[in-house]
Amino acid sequence: MKQILIIDKSHLFRAYLQLKLEESDVEVSVAKNVLEGISKLRTYYPDLLILDYHIEGHRGYLEILKQKQVNVNLTQVPVIITAQQISQQKLIELIPYKVQKLFTKPVKIEALLETISELLGLRFEIDPAPAFLDVHVNDSVIFIEIAQGMNQDKLNMLQFRLLELIELYELKTPRVIMMMSDIKLGIPDTPNLYKLLYIVMKLPGMRSQNVCVLTTDDFVKQFAAKQRDYPNIASVDTLGEALDYLFPGLDSLGADERAGRPGDRLLRFDRSGQEAPQQLRFNSDPMELSGLIQEAIENLRIAVVDDDFVIQELIKNAFQHTGALVRPFFDGREFLDALDTERFNLIFLDLVMPGLDGFAVLKFMREHNIQQPVIVLSVMTARETVIRAFQLGVKSYLVKPIKPHDVYKKTAEILRSIF
């Protein structure tokens, strides 16, 4: 039986990976810090080490690798490193320690399992069913977006991803909208639907009246309606109806009263009843950047593409104490020219600029498969503008005028994820 040691500070990542590996009869041991990791390394003699680069500060990972290197029984053990961000210089430090692969977080589990399979000669059962699953938080609401179909592996990962988000946003009484677009299900999908519902209802603080299914699929609607254990789960056709269900009476409040209520910004945005999933990725709960992703952004390269000098300075000042490099660009053409020789971990992009605007930049990046996280900066209010931006691959946006705190929370939203 193959043995794998996982040393990672994220208990959710350790738990998920251990569960997946043990399904394939792999013996797994886990450690959450350097001391525990070194102790298990000395006694466990694994066939593979999976190590978090950010374990206990800047040099913890190196202590573990050095201990491995001086032990003749461990010298040839292959290593997989997981990291939020890592500089080229520090990457060179890993060469002597038999590091076989580096995975940046959020980790693509399928690719990680494929590498483990290649290194150890193992075979993992992976559900081949086509499925798209995405999870994000907006105004204390968890949006679970499912399209194309249902997939067992993605559902297993969903359980841990939801717990990660609840921890990150400190949600005491979460509300959930399950968006099931571009999907037609039938009787064979019933076990997966039960599993999805079970995962959601077992979340800390979850109540059935705080769950809503957004779908046009008759089979899914019938399934939701037949849940006797959870009779308050609603099934609706539009985002507006879902928010009305989760936040009853919001429209009866005055504008000042609504301002501080969760969901209000989403409700204000559009009430036409024709909402699309692309509109849902805004307005996350506030959080502090310092201490949360400080290590992750130490070597971050950030582009600010905006013709407004004030915005450029605001973002530069927001990151000035983090060690991140912020590179300003005054128009889209200047930025695209720089992409010939530079790569960025995060891009703040204004949609409306003279010359080559933000939409043209997004289109170019999509056509040339340039996959770098983009946060749009805009005064956009038109529904069509928002939908167009998300269709071009935007994951998040900030409405001007922005504040440093808004920049922090959006950055954390993108870079904090481990899955």
Percent of residues in helices: 25-40%
| Topology, number of strands | 15
Which homologous superfamily in CATH is the superfamily of the largest domain? STAS domain
Give the CATH topology of the largest domain.
Answer: Transcription Regulator spoIIAA
CATH class descriptor of the largest domain: Alpha Beta
The Cα radius of gyration reads 23 Å
For the termini, the CA-CA separation is: 27 Å
Q: Would you identify the regions where 5 or more consecutive residues have pLDDT less than 50?
A: 251-293
The fraction of residues assigned to DSSP E strands is 15-25%
- Mean pLDDT across the residues is 82
The dominant shape is globular
The appropriate CATH architecture of the largest domain is 2-Layer Sandwich
User: In terms of structural class, how would the helical and strand content be classed?
Assistant: alpha/beta
User: So how many helices?
Assistant: 16
Major sheet summary line: 5 strands, parallel
Strand order of the biggest β-sheet = 2-1-3-4-5
Number of domains: 3
